[in-house]
Design a protein that fits this description.
The structure is a single chain. The chain is of the alpha/beta class. It is 32% helix and 18% strand. Bound molecules: N-carbamoyl-L-aspartate and zinc ion. Zinc ion (ZN) is lined by residues 15, 17, 41, 248, 250.
Length: 345
């Protein structure tokens, strides 16, 4: 019999962008409506690299959150010249949840990121020593590397090296986008991955078609081939403990999504992310594994308690609003204007 409702332990989102200023006010409660905790990415215009910035940002988020017991977690943005004493202190005091590696110029606000992996080995040593995770944007951007091969190239040239040099370092390969990446995670120790809704729903034809670009399906890493989508769907819906939710919901004002050279990568899915994941698991006939993916595998990997409250989803059609509009902010919602058949009760 088809299931008409499903109750799961309250989810967390292990990778989301909430930004700052009026954008932060516009999007925060799209995530707090269903999540108990979120890992909020530190790639603000001025990246979060110090304790002070991190504490202030978390306070700001909490002051906006409707749900007063919402917990924002923020990783330190790794640069090649961090103050390692402060970094270690902030990790030990649970100010930073871990650290985020952005290869320089791989994505939005990554120009302060890492140019040469060896230059952050001392930071990785600290992470390994205090047993805090390294979150990775796993794409190598260099001349001659096709945009569709960036994840594989990063794994082959850099992740393998990191894995070998720091065997006890906990790693999350964020927004894994390829079969190659997901297989790597599956076959190696101490590494897990988040998977976004878009990488479970779209292929490159949904982004690049008729020699033009759909800017609202453009994100980093770019969505790939059907074989990648099938592999990611299978890992996500199988209950495999190494894979868990991380929406990578990444809002940009619509004016920054006009197809031109500077079109910003990022897809804003927070208004319907849990509903999208539920529909995907329903399509895969795997609703019994939804809770593992959304609410159990993440906290287990991150060593956090599993939430003790629940949310309920019902099978009921609704249309996702086209835009999120607030003050001067206008964002195109992923799946906006389309019909979804799962809804949060
Ligand atoms: C993210 C953003 O806009 O901050 N963009 C994206 O395409 N995913 C950054 C990121 O996670 O790569
Ligand atoms: Zn992201």
């Amino acid at each position: 019999m088809n299931k008409l409702n499903i109750k799961i332990t309250k989810p967390d989102d292990w990778h989301v962008h909430l930004r700052d200023d009026s954008m932060l006010e516009a999007v925060t409660n799209c995530s707090t409506r269903i999540n108990q905790r979120c890992i909020v990415m530190p790639n603000l215009d001025i990246p979060i690299t110090t304790q002070k910035q991190c504490l202030e940002y978390k306070e700001k988020i909490k002051s906006i959150a409707n749900q007063k017991n919402f917990i924002p977690l923020v990783p330190c943005y790794l640069t090649e010249n961090l103050n390692l004493i402060e970094f270690k202190d902030a990790l030990e005091n649970e100010i930073f949840v871990g650290a985020k590696l952005y290869p320089s110029n791989a994505t939005t606000n990554s120009s302060f990121g890492v140019k040469k992996i060896e230059n952050i080995f001392s930071s990785l040593e600290v992470l390994e020593e205090v047993n805090k995770p390294l979150l990775i944007h796993g794409e190598k951007v260099s001349e001659g590397v096709d945009i569709f091969d960036r994840e594989k190239k990063f794994i082959d040239d850099e992740l393998v090296l990191i894995r070998k040099k720091f065997p006890n370092l906990k790693i999350v390969l964020e927004h894994v986008s390829s079969k190659y990446g997901a297989d790597f995670v599956n076959h190696n120790d101490n590494i897990a991955a988040t998977i976004t809704p878009q990488h479970l729903m779209l292929t490159k034809e949904d982004v690049f078609y008729n020699e033009s670009l759909n800017p609202h399906h453009f994100c980093m890493p770019v969505v790939k081939e059907e074989k990648d989508l099938i592999s990611l769907r299978s890992y996500a819906s199988s209950g495999n403990k190494k894979f868990f939710i991380g929406t990578d919901s990444a809002p940009h004002h619509v004016d920054n999504k006009i197809p031109k050279l500077s079109c910003k990568p990022g897809i804003f899915s927070a208004p319907c992310s849990i509903e999208l994941y539920t529909s995907i698991f329903d399509e895969e006939d795997a609703l019994e594994n939804l809770e593992d993916f959304c609410s159990i595998n993440g906290p287990k990997f991150y060593d956090y308690p599993i939430n003790n409250n629940t949310i309920e989803l019902i099978k009921e059609e609704w249309i996702v609003p086209e835009f999120t509009i607030y003050k001067d902010v206008k964002i195109k919602n992923f799946f906006g204007g389309k019909k979804l058949n799962w809804k949060v009760k």
